[in-house]
Design a protein that fits this description.
heterodimer, A: alpha/beta, Rossmann fold, four-stranded parallel beta sheet, B: alpha+beta, Ubiquitin-like (UB roll), 3 domains, five-stranded mixed beta sheet, two-stranded antiparallel sheet, 13 helices, 39% helix
């Protein structure tokens, strides 16, 4: 297999509150000999909130982000479901509406950029599962995850709306997603089947509706726990923030004990590939996860 | 090719008048490649159990009566091919009502909450007109196109009962009501736009409690994409100056402030800015837990200390915001 090369859009959380996401991603890429060129010019995607305030500005900024991957001529890789959907929605809007694209390009021209629409945007999960291939990952496993029942939590913005993602996520069905389950099996873990795996964690209303947010997160975690999960894994750092940090609040609200480690998808792969402790970064978790590495 | 498939159907059964608890009953049948989920519902009733109950009427995807959930997927039973469902979920299909907690009899639910909310946003054109107008009210092509596909809603309730925000927060209007709110608010013949925008701007019932899960977009059998209309309602609130400064509107607007400064979102600052000095106190527990884990740093909180990462070519970002920003709060 020729070496895979991508432009990496880190998003904000990987640079700030979830440093373990970036370090484990880079560690996995190194182990698998995947080249990731970080787009240092990129800005925040707006996290699905900016477009509520100013949709045009959101499209201009995201078009600029994509321009830098276009300059490299590489597929743009995201580490966050919400970055993925915001960039993909911008791409869809511009690629399907030449007039609007011209309007955005007029702004970009003022800083010497042009959006062309000639690169793909893909979440790292699907780069691993579909491009690198599960058999190839399985061949590199050094520490099989056979001791763990692992509950995949897919996160909304990688799977819905399906028409937007079908090219980048290889037609994953939002009502019956399988990619993370298959990845878990490739790492020799046991994937947990539970109803909440394709549901919403509530992150986006954390500030204005904490009860909604904590209930959704708590219910999903309890569903995983009730189905004998030892650990939850998610490809989305926003789901991760909610599920890792809000366990105490959710316990209080739902009146049931919630205490379960939550991993980022690349951390799980990094564990199985035998990456080092520093790179996996379990110390950055609020809900204790350190025991997973021993 | 095999023209029939053997299917096991597990159907939710419950009669409010006689049953203490709901249960699932299993039916086995050979299903043909052209049969719809509605045909399977009919066959349960006609071939197995005449007491099995569900709503049905037009059989043409327009009355919105026959919606149920198949293995958790909201479907309009008369539009969904059974083989497609078997391909997706395997040969065991689970039939549930749209909302189990609202079940009256088997697939039939009490849809009262849906209709109440739909009616509350006033889904009609209201305007004072001359009793004997001299000519019809004309709409331009652009004005009609601005309604988008919001007019195609058949009130089946698929999006409403797929919405997790509504599941937790009973006051929430829900996606179908928002689609109708958008549809009539942008109708140039209507005079209730401001009232509807104020209604949908309320914290709790309004659009700010949408969790952005896209379940509604996925559930709609008419491909209406309700969350697109929810976003449009957000935008209209800012465009028409109806948005009040509160935690949710400041959160949306606060992204510009951060991006201008760093390129990235300042995660701690957006919470402080949106909540204000008092509101932020309720996040202290989480903040301390995050500091302990090394996710955020105490030194970030010292005024004039800037630990934030910065995007390269930040000047471009500042310039683009300057020349592209269209809305204000």
């Amino acid at each position: 297999m020729s070496q895979l090369r991508y432009a990496l859009y880190t998003g904000c959380t990987a640079k700030e509150s979830t440093p373990e996401l970036l370090s484990s991603t880079l560690a996995v890429a190194k182990k698998l000999d995947i080249e990731l060129l970080i787009l240092e010019e990129a800005s925040c995607c707006g996290a699905s909130h900016l477009q509520d305030f100013d949709p045009f500005l959101s499209h201009v900024l995201n078009a600029r982000n994509i321009c830098y991957a276009e300059k490299l001529g590489l597929t743009m890789i995201t580490l966050c479901n919400t970055c993925q959907i915001n960039l993909a929605m911008t791409k869809e809007k511009l690629d399907s509406n030449p007039e609007y694209k011209e309007k955005v390009n007029k702004k970009l021209a003022e800083v010497g950029l042009e959006y062309k629409g000639n690169v793909e945007i893909k979440h790292f999960l699907y780069a691993l599962v579909d491009d690198y291939g599960l058999e190839n990952i399985a061949a590199k496993v050094e520490v099989p995850l056979s001791n763990f029942n692992i509950a995949p939590f897919y996160g909304c913005h990688n799977i819905r709306p399906s028409h937007l993602h079908e090219k980048s996520n290889n037609g994953e069905n939002p009502y019956n997603p399988t990619s993370i389950d298959r990845l878990i099996e490739a790492l020799e873990g046991k994937s947990v089947d539970y109803e909440s795996k394709n549901k919403c964690c509530g992150f986006h209303v954390d500030l204005q509706a904490p009860q909604t947010s904590n209930t959704l997160t708590g219910n999903a975690l309890l569903d995983a726990i009730d189905n004998n999960a030892d650990v939850v894994v998610t490809p989305c750092p926003l789901c991760h923030l909610n599920m890792d940090i809000k366990q105490k609040s959710a316990t209080k609200l739902l009146k049931r004990d919630i205490d379960i480690p939550v991993l980022h998808m690349p951390q799980m792969v990094a564990l199985a590939l035998g990456c080092n402790e520093q790179e996996i970064g379990l110390k950055y978790h609020v809900s204790n996860a350190k025991h997973l590495a021993s | 090719m095999n023209q029939t498939k053997k299917v096991t159907i597990k159907a939710f059964r419950f009669n409010t008048e006689t049953d203490y608890l709901p249960y699932y009953k299993t039916y086995e049948m050979e299903v043909g490649k052209d049969e719809l989920i509605l045909d399977l519902l009919n066959r349960i009733k006609w071939e197995h159990d005449g007491s099995f109950s569900y709503r049905r009427s037009c059989r043409h995807g327009i009355c919105g009566s026959c919606s149920i959930k198949v293995n958790g997927k909201p479907v309009l039973a008369c539009k969904e091919n059974a083989f497609d469902m078997i391909e997706l979920f395997g040969e065991e299909l689970v039939f549930d009502p749209q909302s189990k907690k609202r079940a009256i009899k088997d697939m039939i639910i009490d849809k009262g909450d849906f209709w109440d909310k739909h009616a509350a946003i006033k889904p009609f054109v209201e305007r004072e007109i001359e009793p004997y107008p001299k000519h019809e009210t004309k709409m331009s092509k652009a004005e009609v196109e601005n309604i988008l596909d919001a007019d195609y809603c058949i009130q089946c309730g698929n999006c409403h009962y797929a919405c997790p925000a509504l599941e937790v927060n009973e006051d929430f209007f829900g996606p179908a009501a928002f689609v109708a709110a958008y549809r009539f608010t942008v109708d140039p013949r209507d005079n209730l736009g401001q009232e509807r925008l104020e209604m949908t701007a309320q914290m709790g019932p309004g659009v700010w409690d949408c969790v952005k899960c896209f379940e509604c977009a996925q559930a709609c059998p008419k491909d209406i994409n309700p969350i697109e209309k929810i976003t449009k309602l957000h935008n209209l609130q800012f465009e028409q100056g109806i948005a009040k400064r509160n935690v949710a509107t400041k959160h949306a607007e606060g992204f510009v402030r951060s991006i201008k400064k760093h390129g990235f979102l300042d995660e701690a600052d957006i919470v402080k800015y949106s909540e204000g000095p008092l509101g932020v106190l309720k996040h202290m527990g989480d903040a301390l837990r995050m500091i302990k884990a090394g996710k955020i740093h105490l030194s970030d909180q010292i005024p004039l200390v800037d630990n934030m990462p910065k995007s390269k070519n930040l000047d471009e970002i500042k310039k683009l915001i300057e020349i592209s920003q269209t809305n204000t709060l």
